[in-house]
Structures are given as structure tokens and as C-alpha cells.
Amino acid sequence: MDATQTPAEDTQPARRQALEEHARFYARIGAAIIFTDGIEGEAAKASRRKKWQTTEPLTDPDYAAGLIGARGLVANIGINLRTSNQVGIELDGQQEIDRARELGLPETLTARSSSPDRLHLHYRPPAGLDELEYVSFRFEHEKVIAARNNYYVSPPSIHPDGPVYTFTSELVEPAELPLGVYLELVSLAKSSRSVASVAGRGSLPEGSRDVGLTSHAGKLRRIGCSPAELLAALHVRNEEECKPPLSARDVERIARSVGGYPSGVSDPDGPQPLQSIRADEIQPRSIKWLDKPKLQRSAFHLITGVKGCGKGTWTARTAAGMTTGAYGSPQNVVIVTTEDSTSIDTVPRLIAAGADLSRVYFIEEHFVLPRDIQRLEDSVSEIGDVGMLIIDPIGNHMGGADTDRESAVRYAISDLNRMADELDCAIIGIRHLGKNRMGGALASVLGSTAWVDLPRAVLAFAKDDEDEMVFHVQVIAGNRSGHGAGEAYRIELRDVGLEEPVTYAAHIGTSTKDVDDLLTADRTTPKSKDARGLLLDILDTEGEQESDALDARVARETGLAARTIRNLRSELKAAGLIRAVAQRNDDGSVGRWIVARTAAPRT
Asked: Tell me, which fold does domain 527-597 have in CATH?
């Protein structure tokens, strides 16, 4: 492929083929790959080095082809030099190429970046070297700049200026760098090291602000700046060069992250000792609830249910409450919807629920998780004062990944809890249940178990078994709250000035039914009605019963959960049809409850 070829001239099938060919070569030489943050602008060369963006040295050509062939369509690839057991030399211009040749460099695997005189030379470390102090050397303006950790963006990546990275010769194993040449490079680097590169680079537009400030902070930390000095310097650069400036919270996050690395380390982004913190240095926090036990602040939730069970209508009511102060001070809501029409479905529902529409924002541009999570986070931050982000349905934003595969789902959504925590907002993803619901709500969520393992709470919706306009929502999984009673609500129609009325989810109260029972129930038989009758029949014909034994018997005969039977008993007691008397132990504690009929007639 010619080095002047741009992406517009390259078809996707041809590009994938090129990626796979190079991937097989990288596996043959044991290269460890780093994926950049994208293929355009600063993101084409920068990488946050998240766990999912890096690999160990590749050994399986087929695996490498599958991985790089897919990810390489949305991100550039780089070779992590130290992890790949390589030493790199970067030459910027013909003058620097001539200087390097004077050292007697052997021929080796060489890549061309944006022009014929900008080269990356790949070598194996010298044999017998006790310690590999530096892994890359850059010849620039009569200096040699060394780095302990570095990566080179590699073929067939796409340079931000348009050209495609290529190798200048056959794909061969990197040559060994002679020990004398390596030691000479180290000497040149130590004699010409400079901190002049810490100076600013100019304007940082949207899309490169976070990366630019992080890079600047890393350079400051390398020359010994304290965390406080980092923060002060970043605030100045943010105001002067970021267009528009990042929020103060984002600047503090960058300073805190980079300030955690030891000062004087040549590359804060490279492999370092794992950081630790003592437990007594962590400030405990309480869970912030919006609507206990269903909705938490600063957490990712999954809402699931069959089509037509009122998920969208209930979510619209919840979003409306956020805009009008139902959960505290009024806050903004961001909605991403790819199935419902914003003008026909979502906005009319919000109006019916009394939302402040000036506080509701729709993201219309499509995004893919996790590739675009930083763009999504930046969008929410720039809107500001956002208390809730709704993604409906969340499965439409996985870039065609297999939603049945554990690794694919975790890869896509694992960062949403962190994002919710950093933005201090509730994130709600919506997903459908499968057709086979005999195993209950949790087992019916379409796809991998990661869909229910990662969210802080999973809420399931189900239609009532007696009233077609009544629905129930209940927490069915969560690591911060139990599976308590759910909420019952009725779908009503409200006039909002359109030709047709619009649905609204009217709160009824605490649900006495179990979502699992409702989802697995035979719709032709109202089981809860049968259970009420059976409870009364047993008490009428057999007399008083021990409560737990009664619940278990009725649950067994009706197929309902014991929890549902207990709720039904509570209803019958409230209606005056049964009574419960405590039998106490010698120490005064309640040993068991005895249930009996009252004289009240059935209705």
C-alpha cells in the first residue's frame, strides 16, 4: 500500500485484509499491541492504555488477525516496545537519518509514518545486556531523546494527516541492535536531555483536550512537579489553550491521576508499580438513593422487560421527575433513543409526565461502546448539571458485537459504573427480555450474564395477571439492595394537545406481586386470585395454620413464590378476612405466627 494513500481511497474489506495480514506478522514476532483512542485527529496517535487497549505479546496468528482485523477498523495499532522486547529508533527528517547512519545501524524492520523521511526502526535488544534502561530513542533537532517506556504507531495505521503507515521492506524479524550502538545512544540521550518540550503546543480543540492536558501533566511530573504544582499549571493551560476549557473537575481528575505516579519517571503512561492506598485514607460514602430500592445516584442500572410492558412510559415519568425536582434539586436529563421516535413517542410521554423540557437533551449522533465512551462523557459534562442518562436500548451501541459473549458485553459496558460515579448521575440502560421466561426475569435477560452482573441494580417489568393496564417493576438483582417489594403502576391516557392521547405511568403503590411469578404465569389463569381463594379455603375448612407452613403449601399448589403468598396474606389481613396471632417463647420473643379466619364474609 502506498504511503500517500488516505482512508478515503481504501475500502473497508481491503483495509481489514491489510490489518489481518499485518496482525499475523505481529504474532510471528511476538509483538504486544496497543490500540489508540481512534483513527482521527489526536486520538489516532494517543492511547489511554486502558486494559482493553493493550495485549500481551501475541503468539497465535489467527487470534491476532481476528482481534486486530476488528478493532483496527476503529482504532490505530501500536507496538508496545518494552513488552514486545524491542528497542525503537525514531528518525524525523533526512538530516536525522544521516546522523543515525553514522552510528553504523544495521538494516532492520523499518516503518514509514507520514512521509518518506519519517521512520521508525525496530530492533531486538543487545544480547548480554543486564538492564534495558531505555527502549526508544528519538533523533530530533540534533538531540537524542530517550524513553523508558514507549510505543510506536505501526502499519497499517492511519496518520492524522491522512497517509497510511507502511513498512519500507519485507516483513522481517527485527535485527539485533549491537551493544556498542545501544550504549552510544544512551550516552547521547543523557548528554542532550532537555525539558524544553514541557512548553505548551498551542490550541487544544474538542476531542484532544483531555489527551493534551494529560500529556502535558506527564511531562511536568517527569521533571519533579508536585501534585499541587501540576494542578496549578493545568488550570492555566486549560484556560489559555483548551477550546472550550474543560471543567474544573476534569482538570482535577487529570492532575490527581498523573500526580499519583512517582516524580521523575520518564513515562507516566508506561508500566509502573501498582499504586495502593491505605483503607484509613479512604473517606467512606453512603449510597445516594433517588428512589430506594430502585434507583441509585452515581450508578449504572439495567431496566429490562418484554415489549409493551411500559418500560418507556415509566422511564419517561422517572426522567420527568428528575427535571422537576422529585429527587432533590431539578437536574438535566440526557436521553439516547434509537428505537422510539423522539417527536411521536418520547417527548409526548415527557409532556404527559409534566417534564421541564428545557432540561431534557437528546444525543442524536450514534456512538459505539466503549470506543466513544469518552465522547459521551464529554457531551454529558458539557451539558452540565445532568442527574440522569438514559440509553434505550443499550444493545444498539455495541458496534455489532456479540451480545451473548461474556467478554464482548463486559468490554462494552464495564466502564459505565465508573462514568456514573465520576459524573455523579444515574445511568439507565434498557434491554428486552427473551421470549422464554420460564426461568424467571433474571434468566430471561437477552444475552450474556454480564448484562446482569455489571449493573449496580437490574429492574424487571411485568404486566399484571388480572388487570391489563397495571404493571409491576421490581429490583431482581443488585449488589447494594435486596430484592424487596416492587412498585405497581397503572397506564393511563393523558391529553397533551395532540390528535391522540399519550400514555402516562400513574403510581399505585407497593406491589404485592412477584415479577418472576408474573413473567412465568399462564395468562389464561389469574394465579394470585386462585391463591387468595385457596388461602381462605384452607382456613375455612381446616382451621388455624402456622404462617410459614401455610405459605409454603399454597405456593407449592399454585406455583407462586412464597413471597407473593405472604404479600397476599397481608392484603387479606388488611381487608379484615384473616388475623394473625403471635405465639411467644419463654423469653418473650416471637416463636411463630398463627393465621386464622375472621368472621368477615368473602366478597
From this structure: Arc Repressor Mutant, subunit A (1.10.10)
